User: Fold Zinc-ribbon domain-containing protein from Ferriphaselus amnicola.
Amino acid sequence: MPFCPNCAKEIHANAQVCLACGVTQPIPEGVRGWSWGAFLLNWIWAIGNNTWIGLLSIIPYLGFIMAVILGFKGREWAWRNKHWDSVEHFQRVQKRWSFWGVVICIGGAILGIVTAIAIPMVLGDGTQTEFHVETRRGDAAPETPSRQLPSKYF
Assistant:
C-alpha cells in the first residue's frame, strides 16, 4: 500500500483522495497520455467515463476544441471521475474506447466513400440528360403573331 505524499498515512493504491488529510493524490504512471477514444467519441466517451465537461463537445464550433482537449486531458479526468479497480483495468477500458473510436471513424469514412460512388451509379448521372423534340413533316408549328416595329431607317 502506498502512502499519502502530504500526511504520510497509508492509503489504498487506487485512492484518489487521502481520507486522512483530504489531499488529491497524484496521477499514477500509465494513466496520462493521448486518448483516441476521448478524441473520436468525445461526448459518448464523456458519458461513459463520468467526465461531464466532455459534453461541451456537442456545442458547435466549440466541439472540435473540446475534442482536442479531451484527447490530451481525458485519461486523467476519467481516472479522477470514475472508480477503477486498478491501473490495468483502466488501461483495458481506455484501450477498448480507442479501438472502437478508430473503427467507427474509419468505418464511417469507408461507408461515405462507397455511398458517394454508389448513389450516382444507381440513380444515374444527371449530366447525361438528353432532350428530344419530335416534329413530323407537314406539321407546322403554330404561328405566333409578330409585331413589326416602325423603323425610322426604312
